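Design job #97: recover the sequence.
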């Protein structure tokens, strides 16, 4: 095909890229090129990560695949990124996965500063080409649905830039501390450190530690990328509250939220309600969550920055003795699906390593009130991931042995267990061996969460 663009002009590159909207390789390439692509696709059977992006670079733009530290369009400083969409009944399209960048060089990055970082040099200007992913169809028929040139430091808000910068520093500081092997996507809000390796056993050396670490790459989290997509589509939720409506508050999520809660730590819910002019004839069951929302400045559970960072706000109510009685659940799993998963590709592993929580902790008092004791941002620590793996593996083993009614309980592990997560005993799903069993999920043990709150 004729590649009709000027690689010294950003406008020309964007205009050329936009000509592919609602088109696929099949619509624009010659028969000879399609035959070559078809042979490649048959060779890899859709199992090669990044294969589609490599094909786009080579056949649509004439860029040979490389690991160059410079942007793909080096003359204008523009990096080309292809990323999949999936259909959504209400939002038209949503992000299928995170947007992954180049590998993190553990040895070099500890000597970098944000403003002159290799990450910014390569990714400050991003040409985003979103295509519609559909299962079981040929890569050559994927259609492009959205093209956007993203200037990471000028198009995004000052608050988003500040958060991305803080995320970068969090990752780098952990590497400097010799803890690259303990990195998790749950450590950060928008910019993550995603695992990126051909096999789960791949490891590379890190500075300041003799422990090898998984290869990782910077990535924009799926939840943050989805917020950008909705913005480009004009589908932003106007009812969602932003923590940064008040421009006088700190620019990062954690600092902003800590500043909002600070005046009320140590106060009873009654005192806080008086201060915020909240009056009840009879308190609803959800009164603590409603109070938390008001402290944050809203009456809604929809908070933009928490949604973009995939942070789950959980109100924790300790007993007067300080004991936590309630465990924390993850989404229900499917007996038919979980037995075909590999641990590091499983839904539970993904949840543990990407999910971040904001715990708002009240301690009940004997007079019926509760003191707002603390808030804590938390994600599952990688040092405990092996214990969770053992529970997951035992769960899969028992389901395969037709024992879905006897999965690991709270006494079988200090951190994780399995128990029902259903409306009632009739809320069942098939086990895969001819019976139906009540819906279940993995739970973080109450005692384990209590210990995390105390640390």
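Job complete. Output follows.
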């Amino acid at each position: 095909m004729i590649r009709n663009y000027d690689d010294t002009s950003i406008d020309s590159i964007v205009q050329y890229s936009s000509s592919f909207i609602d088109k696929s390789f099949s619509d624009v390439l010659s028969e000879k090129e399609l035959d070559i692509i078809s042979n490649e696709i048959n060779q890899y059977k859709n199992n090669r990560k990044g294969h589609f992006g490599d094909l786009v670079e080579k056949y649509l733009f004439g860029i040979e695949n490389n690991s160059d530290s410079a942007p793909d369009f080096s003359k204008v400083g523009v990096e080309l990124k292809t990323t999949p969409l999936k259909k959504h009944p209400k939002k038209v399209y949503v992000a299928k996965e995170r947007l992954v960048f180049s590998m993190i060089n553990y040895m070099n990055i500890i000597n970098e500063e944000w403003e002159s970082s290799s990450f910014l040099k390569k990714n400050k200007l991003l040409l985003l080409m979103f295509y519609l992913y559909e299962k079981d169809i040929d890569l050559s028929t994927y259609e492009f649905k959205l093209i956007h040139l993203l200037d990471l430091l000028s198009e995004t808000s000052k608050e988003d830039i500040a958060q991305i910068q803080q995320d970068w520093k969090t990752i780098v500081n952990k590497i400097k501390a010799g803890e690259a092997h303990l990195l998790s996507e749950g450590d950060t809000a928008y910019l993550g450190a995603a695992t990126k390796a051909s096999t789960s056993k791949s490891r590379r050396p890190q500075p300041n530690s003799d422990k090898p670490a998984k290869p990782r790459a910077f990535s924009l989290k799926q939840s943050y990328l989805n917020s950008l997509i909705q913005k480009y589509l004009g589908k932003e939720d106007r009812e969602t509250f932003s923590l940064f409506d008040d421009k006088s508050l700190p620019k990062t999520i954690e600092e902003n939220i800590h500043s909002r809660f600070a005046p009320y730590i140590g106060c009873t819910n009654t005192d806080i309600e008086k201060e915020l002019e909240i009056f009840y004839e009879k308190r609803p069951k959800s009164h603590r969550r409603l109070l938390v929302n008001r402290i944050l400045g809203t009456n809604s559970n929809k908070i933009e920055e928490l949604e973009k960072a995939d942070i789950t706000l959980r109100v924790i109510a300790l007993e007067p003795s300080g004991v936590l009685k309630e465990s924390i659940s993850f989404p229900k799993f499917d007996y038919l699906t979980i037995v075909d998963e590999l641990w590091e590709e499983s839904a539970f592993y993904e949840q543990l390593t990407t999910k971040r929580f904001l715990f708002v902790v009240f301690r009940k008092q004997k007079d019926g009130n509760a003191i707002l004791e603390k808030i804590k941002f938390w994600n599952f620590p990688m040092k405990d991931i092996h214990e969770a793996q053992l529970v997951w593996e035992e769960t899969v083993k028992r389901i395969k042995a037709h024992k879905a009614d006897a999965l690991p309980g709270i006494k079988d592990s200090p951190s994780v267990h399995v128990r029902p997560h259903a409306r009632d005993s009739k809320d069942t799903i098939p086990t895969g061996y001819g019976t139906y069993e009540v819906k279940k999920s993995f739970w973080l043990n109450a005692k384990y969460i209590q210990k995390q709150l105390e640390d």
